[in-house]
Amino acid sequence: MKVGYYCGDGDMNAGGVAPYADRVLVALSGYSFKDVELTAIAPHDAPRYGSVRYRNIKRNGLVRKAMFHLSDCLYLLTHPRYGGKIAPYRGWLSKIHCDWRFDLLHFPFQLPYRTTFRSPFIVTMHDVQELHFPEFFTPNERRSRANLYTGAIEQAARIVVSFDHVKADLLRYFRLEEEKVVVIPVPYSACKFPEYSQIEGQQIELEYQFAMPFVLYPAQTWEHKNHLGLIGAFEEVCDRCGQDIHLVCTGVLNDFYKSTIEKRVSSSRYRDRIHFLGVVSGKNLHWLYRKALGVVIPSLYEAGSFPLIEAMQIGAPVVCARTTSLPGTIGDDRFVFDPRNRESMVDKVLSLVGDRAFREENRLNSQRKAKWMQEVELGAEYENLWRSTLERTVRR
Predict the structure, then answer these.
(1) Strand 86-89 with 294-297, pairing
(2) Does one domain contain both 342 and 380?
(3) How far apart (Å, rounded) are the C-alpha atoms in residues 39 and 55?
(4) Which of the pair, 42 or 394, is modelled with greater confidence?
(5) Among candidate residues 282, 318, 316, 320, the one with its CA nearest the CA of residue 299
(6) pLDDT of residue 38
(7) Distance between CA atoms of 179 and 173, rounded to whole angstroms?
(8) Residue 19 sits in which domain range?
(9) Range 326-335 average pLDDT
(10) Are residues 230 and 312 in the same domain?
């Protein structure tokens, strides 16, 4: 069975979709498929493929690592079991007639570039947030999502989601048959950061010395990420805790930051303690997780939160909102809050800042959950998905 996995051309501006696609591939690369020839497909000019994270690491002619470096052309990377051949292939997916090479195509994001292929295809639907929070989207954005999502969902042979709440939405709003939507967990085992040396750690500490001690929130500044709610809660925490603590936010600074959040920060009585750093390197973010008093995830909607997963696996104390996938991921009601209730959020952040026992209990909970996350084997689940999808297609 030949499966083509299209990594997409998204970057950090697309939120968690690009990291999800890459991390699924990392997880799959370490699995020994029985009779699956897995080929990863990516456009040459996708920004994230120019980073040092994606390298060809070849030993004895085999690719031993999951990722790849794409600099000047499109590559097809075959699974190591089949020789690990790396071959240049110029052009976009929509221009190359490659789908005849595959029994099945897999798109790990909401939309394929086109929705008609010679081969059956699978899409991953990450969320239908616009149906829950239409106020966060313009009329044109809602119309575009409705048209594009409907086209992809109707023509896809199967739909993958990461959490039950997304499946429930698809069944409810798109009236799909239950068998068409399959829940497969996010690639927990691939949520890792590059390590930093002792010298690098000292250099990073000097870089962020102005913001210590601090609580951390890594997220792009979309409205549903609830930075405004967190800023209000942080001000009250500063009023009550008696410590000179800081709030550090990392991630893409988009239009909502420029139009709204920046003004809110500038008007804050604690504006000198609130820092929006933009996108930081993997090593820097790793350091921030490790050195934070705690991580706060106040989002109003999350199909799945990589920052929450990353904090738990690194061992950073973390509290999160009681919304969508978040409480199920953290797995303990002691560490969740109502994101629309300032007092609820303030109470948990105060515990992160001032209660050592709370932080230790939080770390123990994360250790237990992280152990389970590392044991989730995606390879078998995806192999079963691909095989059953082809069988289902033949039956029809």
Answers:
(1) unpaired
(2) no
(3) 16
(4) 394
(5) 320
(6) 80
(7) 16
(8) 2-185+376-395
(9) 94
(10) yes
